[in-house]
Amino acid sequence: MKNKTWKFTLICSLIVMGFTACDDDDEYYYVGGGSSWLSYGNLEKIDNGSRSKFAIRRDDGNRLIVTEGMPIRFDGAKEDLRVYAHYSIVGSERDESGLEGNMNYYVRLYGLDDVLTKVPVKQSFIHENEGVRQDSIGNDPINVQEAWFGGRYLNVEFRIPVKDGSKEKHFINLVQDDVVAHHDTVYVTLRHNAYGEKPGTGNDRGNFSWGRGRVSFDLTSIVPEGQTSVPVKLIWTEYGKNASETVRREDSGTYTLKNARKTGKDRGLNQDKSKMVSTEGVGECVVE
């Protein structure tokens, strides 16, 4: 994983695709009809001959092994790289390499994006140089489309207004409040610095469109020593019905270390997003 605490670059591209759920209880099956999936995961080295140097370990623990389509052997591919994959399943079998009961899915890979990852920035770190760091982190609104725990991450898919034709880089971070005590709950705030590129009430307000981005935050560090899980509250401020309105939002769930038993109900940040159907047009944005 790339621990870029302060800066990352993310290019969002046009996606119009659909996907469907598959039954994990089947020992072997074939999926046809053009059905496809979109999943988050991490690259994992595999001996798959010349086809691919890596498999993809999904957040649910199942593994994607490429047998058709685009091979995974591009420059920059490395162990544990966070990726977002578009694929269809052509077959499956039980993964006999572990005791977790996971599956090996043999897939036709259509596309693979690098998901840039970060770790939370502590509030105490910002306070060490309040004037500079608070301003750099930013206080601009950010509209969260989806946020959920997957593997060791908090995954966030968001929208921000960007000026048409602009390549201005925005700045996204997750700030962990380690200054004020909140009982057993960890408070984290999604922060955005638009560097002045935000819609106003002047003549340029019609020159903005929504750009979509995604980021995964590794939350391993927020779990206290000796524990395997911790309640989390996510806070953010988003645009309302127009650029002059802002709304404070929050969501919550129980974050559990990757290899520990899952806790908490299937709601809030603990919702299972692995089978969420998506058919959507997405604009392009650049985020720093």
UniProtKB/TrEMBL annotation:
Transmembrane segments annotated in the record for this chain: none
Annotated region (Disordered), positions in chain: 260-288
NigD-like C-terminal domain sequence ranges: 130-243
Pfam families per the UniProt record, alphabetical: NigD_C
Composition bias, Basic and acidic residues: 263-275
Top-rank taxon: Bacteria
The name this protein goes by in its record: NigD-like C-terminal domain-containing protein
